[in-house]
């Protein structure tokens, strides 16, 4: 029962505008086979480069414990309620994010412009995938680098030179970016049940096991205690205002929120499954993986006298150095980067899925054509990000705007998606659920006790929008 073009395309017209669309559309589309399948897929989306690459480096840059505490608070207060809202909207509409929002708007006689929330999300996901795939390509490249033993016994300078050598070589970057995008497309083209679900049910547990192996190694370095203290002993003197805002923004990115992904996945969620419990499970697993990644990385960093605040290069420059020095480093290093590819792959799949779903429905394309079309355009856009790392490194197309001075195309894509589109999408989702959507419909979908429902409603009405608005305004300033 995979989602095929004929399933969704042929039904979308017939069901349009009728209330049956809201209740019955899932029946024709193919659903997740179980709650576990949805959790696997949503976790596959949430756990990615954000957890293993970004979380350790932003934690390192922001001084550790206190930042981690704020990040955990953001997950609980902002992340989980918005995830519940996104999954709820997706399941209520039962279609692609844009279609779901317009069906709900039509049925509840709301302003049809709300469907733009889905459109912003789809566009953001598409733009993110273009450079996410390039970074996924770095991870692929490092499997070869570590496996071949080139890192063994290398100095920091030599390891740094390997990384800058990769960034300066557009042909190699293009090859790995192409491979990453092809991997994503191969899964998406096969549809939700036969492709994605099967892939994540193998990839996610494998990822856990691989991460535990690296943590197991990290425990033997003699610096595990120092890493635990760094991550979990808050030192509030190290927490800055910008650190708080980075923590909030990262909570969005890491849970795949504000980009319609959870709406798209929620549309395949059977009606009898608890949205609150599933959202909570996904968030807890995602947070657990980020913390495990921290526990895997920081002992190695400390044991080798490396710098926790080294920035985005942390795992690609600092860790390979550590892997080059440790016994069996080639093996552990290879495993680590394989793990990173798995994580990035399942996230990449979730970034492509919403746009493919939308093309199928809206343009009546079949899944193969829509996947190829969206994937190839996204791949082509990724070339601009690749060139930004080398030949176009000095090209700042919007450099005349003071805030965007010196930003390459890669930087701009990252800036506009993470700092503008993502908080905007999240804010609008919170406003839609908190203030616009009918209470009755939400009560029915969420099926919470009255007390829990009110707690959730107050959060999405007041707490989430204010918190998100602060990040949004801060980023614009
Ligand atoms: N959550 C993913 C990560 O942490 O790497 C990235 C991501 C995937 C963001 C899908 C947004 C998204 F829609």
What do you see in this structure?
Belongs to the sodium:neurotransmitter symporter (SNF) (TC 2.A.22) family. It is found in: Membrane. One of its GO terms (molecular function) is symporter activity. This is Transporter. It is a single chain. This protein has 20 helices and no strands. The chain is mainly α and 477 residues long. It has one domain: Amino acid/polyamine transporter I, CATH 1.20.1740. 4-fluoro-L-phenylalanine (PFF) binds next to helix 3, helix 4, helix 7, helix 12 and helix 16.
Question: How is the secondary structure organized here?
Answer:
Blueprint: H1 5-15, H2 19-29, H3 35-46, H4 49-61, H5 65-93, H6 97-107, H7 115-147, H8 156-167, H9 170-189, H10 192-219, H11 224-232, H12 241-254, H13 261-266, H14 275-303, H15 314-325, H16 329-363, H17 367-388, H18 409-436, H19 439-446, H20 450-476
Membrane topology: Multi-pass membrane protein
Protein name: Transporter
InterPro entries: Na/ntran_symport (IPR000175), SNS_sf (IPR037272), YocR/YhdH-like (IPR047218)
The biggest beta sheet, please?
A: none
Number of helices: 20
Name of the CATH class:
Mainly Alpha
Strand content: under 5%
Let me know the average pLDDT.
84
Helix content: over 70%
Helical/strand content category? mainly alpha
- Which small-molecule ligands are present, each listed once? 4-fluoro-L-phenylalanine
Q: Any guess at the CATH architecture?
A: Up-down Bundle
What is the total domain count?
Answer: 1
Low confidence ranges: 1-28
The end-to-end distance, rounded to whole angstroms, is 49 Å
Number of strands: 0
Q: What coarse outline follows from CA principal-axis ratios? A: globular
């Amino acid at each position: 029962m995979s989602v095929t073009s004929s399933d969704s395309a042929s039904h979308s017209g017939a069901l349009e505008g009728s209330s049956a669309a809201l209740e019955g559309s899932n029946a024709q589309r193919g659903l997740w086979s179980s709650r576990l399948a949805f959790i696997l897929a949503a976790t596959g989306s949430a756990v990615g480069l954000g957890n293993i690459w970004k979380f350790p480096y932003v934690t390192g840059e922001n001084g550790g414990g206190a930042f981690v505490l704020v990040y955990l608070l953001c997950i609980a207060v902002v992340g989980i309620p918005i995830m519940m809202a996104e999954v709820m909207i997706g399941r209520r509409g039962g279609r692609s994010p844009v279609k779901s929002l317009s069906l709900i708007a039509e049925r509840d006689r709301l302003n049809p412009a709300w469907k733009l929330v889905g459109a912003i999300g789809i566009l953001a996901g598409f733009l993110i995938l273009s450079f996410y795939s390039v970074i996924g390509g770095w991870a692929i490249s490092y499997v070869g680098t570590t496996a071949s033993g080139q890192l063994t016994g290398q100095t920091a300078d030599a390891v740094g030179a390997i990384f800058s050598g990769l960034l300066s070589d557009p042909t190699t970057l293009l090859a790995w970016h192409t491979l990453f995008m092809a991997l994503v497309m191969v899964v998406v083209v096969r549809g939700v049940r036969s492709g994605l679900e099967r892939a994540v049910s193998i990839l996610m547990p494998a990822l856990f096991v691989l991460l535990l192996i690296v943590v197991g190694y990290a425990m033997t370095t003699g610096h595990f205690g120092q890493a635990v203290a760094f991550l979990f002993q808050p030192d509030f003197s190290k927490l800055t205002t910008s650190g708080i805002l980075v923590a909030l923004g990262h909570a969005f990115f890491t849970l795949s929120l504000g980009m319609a992904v959870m709406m798209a996945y929620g549309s395949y969620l059977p009606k009898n499954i608890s949205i609150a419990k599933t959202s909570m499970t996904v968030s807890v697993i995602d947070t657990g993986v980020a913390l495990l990644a921290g526990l895997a990385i920081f002992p190695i960093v400390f044991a080798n006298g490396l710098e926790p605040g080294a920035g985005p290069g942390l795992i690609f420059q600092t860790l390979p150095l550590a892997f080059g020095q440790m016994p069996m480093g080639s093996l552990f290093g290879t495993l680590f980067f394989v793990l990173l590819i798995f994580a990035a792959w399942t996230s990449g799949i979730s970034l492509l899925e919403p746009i493919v779903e939308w093309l199928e429905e809206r343009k009546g394309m079949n899944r193969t054509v829509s996947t190829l079309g969206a994937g190839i355009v996204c791949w082509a856009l990724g070339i601009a990000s690749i060139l930004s790392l080398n030949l176009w490194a000095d090209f700042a197309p919007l450099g005349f705007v003071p805030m965007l001075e010196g930003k390459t195309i890669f930087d701009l894509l990252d800036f506009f998606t993470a700092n503008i589109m993502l908080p905007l999408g999240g804010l609008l989702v919170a406003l839609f659920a908190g203030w616009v959507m009918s209470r009755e419909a939400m009560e029915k979908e969420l099926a919470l006790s009255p007390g829990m429902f009110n707690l959730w409603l107050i959060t999405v009405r007041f707490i989430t929008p204010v918190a998100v608005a602060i990040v949004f305004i801060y980023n614009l300033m």
